[in-house]
Write a structure and sequence with these properties.
With about 300 residues, the protein is α/β, with parallel strands linked by helices. The protein is built from nine helices and eleven strands. The protein has helices at about 1-10, 25-30, 90-110, 145-165, 190, 215-225, 230-235, 245-250, 255-270, and strands at about 10, 40-45, 60, 65-75, 75-85, 115-120, 120-125, 140-145, 170, 170-175, 300. Strands 1, 2, 4, 5, 6, 7 and 8 form a seven-stranded mixed beta sheet that branches. It has a two-stranded parallel sheet with strand order 3-11. Strand 1 (about 10), helix 2 and strand 2 (about 40-45) form a beta-alpha-beta unit. Helix 3 (about 90-110) crosses helix 4 and helix 7 (about 230-235) packs across helix 9. It starts with a helix and ends with a strand.
Length: about 300
């Protein structure tokens, strides 16, 4: 998409072999220098910690926005943040990612002393309904940023400090994790997968082993002290009446009965090969909710 865009208009792009645009190029673009309308792979990493991250021991990693569009209008510089996704539908988490980039862009502009407007709408460039991932065409979905900005702000204010306070040490890991199907390429999978192995007893086997369990459903169970397959099985039909249980606990295939079935299979099946997990065993691969977290807590 970016290659095609660069044939139609001027786009600042990273040099060959580089992950992101050079810092001096990115700064010049944000200050309004040059004639490019777009900048690709801009590292939105202010030198100081943005205020919205609060006072916790948080360190930002590199955050590359796929595209930033710059418009010069009578009212000054206007910037729009765009994320490119190989999908046919823009999801809420795609839009939340753009909102996070917008907050970082605002912080960078303030740090550089640039008086500019970041547009109140973001864009997701996705695969056209009649296209495919191999083509260079795209459909642009514009969306209002305000609700997603509130979501990121609330996360940074209420959830992030609690994550930063968790202890990670040899033999001790207090961070929240959930093993599911998107974990297959995660570097932390060998660590997390041990918790759901069928070689564990039901009382030590993490509740993530129950297929279909969502992140929020697991959080709900943990909030009432249920963190194992045996605990879920013992909860019985009452699981569906828990406040915040959600569909996967109250009406879907994941329930106390699924926990009881896993208790039986755990007792009767030998430990499978680590790489052989599948839904046939009642398991779905799940990853840490924030795989970039370290003891000093690194965000994105």
């Amino acid at each position: 998409m970016v290659t095609r865009l660069a044939r139609e208009t001027e786009v600042l792009r990273p040099a060959h072999g580089e992950d992101g645009l050079l810092e001096r190029q990115a700064i010049a673009f944000l200050k309004g220098h040059g004639t490019a309308s777009y900048a690709a792979q801009v590292n939105l990493r202010p030198r100081g910690k943005p205020a919205f991250l609060g006072t916790s021991d948080i360190k930002l990693r590199r955050s590359f926005a796929d595209l930033i569009r710059r418009d010069v209008r009578p009212t000054g510089l206007h910037f729009t943040v765009i994320d490119i996704k190989a999908t046919r539908a823009a999801r809420a988490f795609h839009k939340t990612q753009v909102a996070f980039y917008v907050m970082l862009l605002r912080a960078m502009l303030a740090e550089l002393g640039v008086d500019a407007i970041v547009e109140p709408a973001g864009e997701i460039w996705r695969i056209p309904d009649d296209g495919d991932a191999e083509g260079d065409r795209w459909t642009s979905e514009e969306f209002a940023l305000k609700p997603y900005l509130r979501l990121v702000e609330d996360f940074c204010r209420t959830t992030l400090p609690a994550i930063a306070d968790k202890v990670v040490a040899p033999g001790r890991d207090e961070t929240f994790f959930h093993v599911y199907f998107k974990c297959e390429q995660c570097s932390y999978l060998p660590h997390c997968i041990e918790a759901v192995g069928s070689n564990r007893t039901p009382r030590t086997r993490d509740v993530s082993a129950v297929a279909g369990l969502s992140h929020e459903a697991k959080r709900t169970l943990l909030s009432i002290g249920i963190g194992t397959v045996a605990g879920l099985a013992e909860l019985g039909a009452g699981v569906g009446r828990i406040d915040g249980a959600g569909w996967s606990l109250s009406g879907g295939p994941t329930s106390s009965s699924a926990g009881r079935r896993l208790c039986v299979t755990t007792a009767s099946n030998p430990a499978p090969n680590r790489t052989a997990f599948s839904c046939r065993r009642g398991l779905m691969l799940r990853s840490t909710s924030l795989p970039t977290m370290t003891p000093s807590t690194t965000l994105w």
